[in-house]
Amino acid sequence: MKRLLLGPHAVLEAIRSRPGQITVVLVASSAERGHKAALDEIRARGVRIDGRPTEELDAIAAGGKHQGLLALAGEYPYVGWDQVLDLPDDALIVALDEVTDPHNFGAIVRSAVAFGADAIMTLKDRAAPVTPVVVRASAGATEHASIVRVTNLARSLDELRETGRQIVGLAAEGDVSITALPPSDRGRVLVVGSEGHGLRPLVRKQCDVLAKIPMPGKIASLNASVAAGIALHAAASQR
Q: How far is the CA of 64 from the CAs of 28, 39, 77, 134, 210, in angstroms?
């Protein structure tokens, strides 16, 4: 199944990281001048560009914001589970437990790529897949990410623990601050719960430690993507 990349950021990031995945780039005839720099780079990378009426791009985007530029690409290239198991000893992995909101998913992917996470785990069911909304929310970071979909997150975390990796769950009632985690010689898995319910009990049981984000202000909780960004910054600084 083809996927859509909407807007210049998503299109350019995809072409820079996976040019062979791009079938064609469509540009609204009225937007060609405004996107000259992007179009020059796209041509230089050997990707075909077609000019089309804005109305045609609107129809293809089906309500998505394309800013006069979109690309048709192949299926999103999720990585395999074996690739995650084979990551280096110091790998930083993000695991998402039923994160269903595509905007949150995209924002977490963006933070994960920005802070050098080596892989992102999500569920095949009861979780947002990579869609044009996710790609746009990530500002194209999905095209630089290694994302794996698993059937059973608790079982997958158990497998990662057997490799020696430290499993850290984010929880408001955590035992330690995210900035004061015990050291780990075999990498770390940061587990982020769903927007409404946090970590499920079976997933929570797989965590070696529950970590909290200190919040001295009057608000006692953060949404999943903001919490993940703060935790990723802390984890990256401890590598």
A: 14, 20, 22, 11, 38
Could you give the angle at the alpha carbon of 147 between the alpha carbons of 141 and 150, nearest 5°?
A: 155
Do residues 231 and 180 share a domain? yes
pTM of the model: 0.86
Q: How far apart are CA 133 and CA 143, in angstroms?
A: 13
**Same structural domain, 28 and 130:** no
Query: For each of the chain's 239 residues, which pLDDT tens digit applies?
Result: 578 899 998 899 889 988 788 889 999 988 988 999 999 999 998 899 999 999 999 999 888 889 999 998 888 999 999 999 999 989 999 999 999 999 999 999 999 999 999 999 999 999 999 988 898 899 889 989 999 999 999 999 999 999 999 999 999 889 899 999 888 888 999 999 987 788 999 999 999 999 999 888 777 678 889 999 999 999 998 87
Q: Residue 63 is part of which domain span?
A: 3-73
At 202, list the tokens. Answer: 């079976």
Alpha helices (runs of H) in the chain, residue ranges in sequence order: 8-17, 36-44, 54-61, 81-85, 102-114, 132-137, 153-162, 201-205, 224-237
Statement to judge: residues 130 and 63 lie in one domain: no
**Type of residue found at 82:** D
Q: Looking at the structure, do residues 161 and 207 belong to the same domain, yes or no? A: yes
Q: Is the same domain home to 130 and 219?
A: yes
Same domain for 92 and 208, yes or no, is yes
Number of domains in the chain: 2
Alpha-carbon gap, residue 220 to 218, rounded angstroms: 6
Domain co-membership, 123 together with 233: yes
- For residue 89, give both structure tokens: 């000893």
